[in-house]
Amino acid sequence: MDTRRKWYLGAALMALLYMVGLVAQAQGLQDDSRRNRPRHRDAPEFKVDADWPKALPNQWLVGQVAGVAVDRRDTIWIIQRPRTLTADEAGAAQTPPRSECCFPAPSVMQFDVRGNLLRAWGGPADPGFLASRCTPAIGCEWPTNEHGIFVDHNDNVWIAGNGGGDHQVLKFTSDGTFLLQIGKAGQTGGSNDTAGAPNGTPLLGNPADIEVDPANNEAYVSDGYLNKRVLVVDGQTGRYKRHWGAYGNVPSDADPGPYVPGAPTALQFRNPVHCVRIANDGLVYVCDRLNNRIQVFQKNGRFVREFFLDRATLGNGAAWDVDLSPDNRQRWLYNADGENNKIWILERLTGLLGDTFGRQGRSAGQFHWVHNLAVDSKGNIYTAEVDTGKRAQKFVPQTNR
Amino acid sequence: MTSTGTGEPVRGRSATPWRRALAALVLLVSALPGFGHDIPGQIRVHAFAKVEGDRLHVLLRLPLTLLLNVDLPKQGPGYLALADIDEGLSRAVRAADKDIRWLENDRLLTLAASSARISLPSDTSFGSYASALALLRGPRLSTKEYVFWNQGYFDAHLEYPIGSPSSSFSLDFRVAPGLRDRLKLDLRFLSADGRERAYELNTDQGPVILDPRWYQAAATFVASGFQHVLLGPDHLLFLVCLILPFRRLDGYLVGVVTAFAVGHSITLIAAAYGVTPEGAWFAPLVEVLIAVSILFMAIENVFRPQLQRRWATSGLFGLVHGFGFAAMLQSQLQFAGSSLLVSLLAFNVGIEGGQLLVLMTVLPALTLLRRWVPDSERALAIIVGLLCGHAAVHWLTERMQALWKAAELAADWLPLVNIGLLLVLLSGWASWKALGSLRGSSKSGQAPASVQR
After folding, report:
1. CA quadruple A197, A203, A205, A208: dihedral positive or negative?
2. Is A377 part of the contact surface with chain B (CB cutoff 8 Å)?
């Protein structure tokens, strides 16, 4: 065989091997995502986008990412806890610096869908923020442990806190100008307080999350780690509108004791009441985290139905945060489960299980204490992890279904 | 030594095997992927322009963040003082009239009447002309509403008297020119005969004719095609590689260039009429193939130019480049008005003009160089081949990443398999060329015998 023929043969063999490799890789990816498990045939599938977010500037590093939200322009906001960084993680910020990297990032960060950081402000890691832009003198008490985040229909950013004395929700403009505080740090008044704070707003009890209804600018607060209620206030003034407990009952602060699988269903929320989300059809979804259930209400607090997740889940519970698919009907409800460390995909109106994805782990696409999630208009899911998870991830819906 | 039927044989200077190996190494090492930085954020202005009777009605929506210099009155932490906003709104209208200029037959239109208001960020009335007009004619925002100074919209209804509804109207959008392509205007133009055209304009891009006559569209597209060849480095490099081995402009070279022109015209027109795959992978695939075409030409020039077949490769790669031109044309077709075919042909004419200019510049330059430096043929082929190949490998790496991402997101692996196969065949072919060339050099101690025209 002459040399030319050898090269032809070599090139052909290389081409064949390359093709086989590509096909095998594609097949492998599909096999992995279609592993044996019960699933609804229409349920969407997701794949992690490990390129999101991109590397942060200024040698910044995020701590526990407590909250994530998507605004109406499809930019993604997170609230993270710079104070949870350990000395070795924030090595450059130590005195003297113990390593080349890193510095704590500001608490509120805005990204685009490609993972570029657009804006960052707030919290102890934003120089001067707590000394001038958010001070008790102007009625702004930044929480000691940042929690949920929500961006409303008018681009205002709402945040909550659940640290020891954090009994307040704060409202800022998108560039971090303080607008309103609901509640008062260090003061709490139980699950039925309506106007106990000095500024006439209700006292809160370690609020977890917020959602603002664009129809009438009412702010819904899942209240919280100490109180056991959903609270609705006016989004402009923070003044009380209404509140309710589980099944629409008047909330009770009596200690229900630990959750026991198989015990009669609790008639009150357990702490924390961890999320509140409003669907396009006006239904309000509330996470009763330790009771492993999502309760559904009308906007006036009338109970509609409840979905149970894995009722055997102990520890921190299975119902952490919900958001809805972006189709008009909002067919799918996604629930972040930080105890089993997976995302549940439920059919919103029936509560039937569509699918789940993720597992405990630290590789891309896995979770540790997945705490919050949010969905953009393209159906991408963004997740936030706390404890030692300390990251946000993006999951892209697969379109070959 | 081989010879084509028409060419004169030229003996090139020998390039030793180690030189070639070094050249290949430089080519590969220098092709490490580069990292870019995206400029985040984009501001959009929305507008409707409707010709109605003796007036041009313009409905305008500007994000408040663009009105920083107008200094609207504020209260509290930064809310607009809506009760005292009138004077501020008048200033904003004047600013908008100054920076968004409407022309009728190149005559600047003068603002005759206006009304303006502030809207909440959540307002969606600018979805259609009717709802935007209803908003502007309806009650103003309550003074009890809270609008933060940079979180909302300034909406205005501007009326300009016109001479005739059938005049040619154009727009010069130059709000905050420093923002360049980060500030875009989404315009819907409703002409007197009921047609609606959509435009997306960058700020400060110069006057744009909104419903051009055929000759106006043709002039725009000739210029556009001309610019695209001269400002598109990939097409330029391909052309340089294509004509590098030729020494003079003869019938054969004209045939080679014509084959390229015919190839790209076919796919350009086909793409403009929608005969292209719809997958998100297609555009990156075309970009990859364009890089491959340059790499192919660069390698062939360095090792063994097959000039007798160059018209065929030229035509084949012309098809690929045509899809590339079409991708660029997509954003330009908005300026075609109702003269789509004329605009396409004009775009092609512009491209040919650009190519002709390249030809008329590069060929004499090469001839002069060869006269000054005798026997520089091989050195020239290697240096230009390296430079072009270097750029092509860079593009190939970047574009393969984009293609991979697009195919991965669409979970569609077929284009990747195809491109992989193509690349492997290309590398096999290049290796074969290289080996043949090395063998030739080692046997004869001189450059591979190729024919230079």
Report:
1. negative
2. no
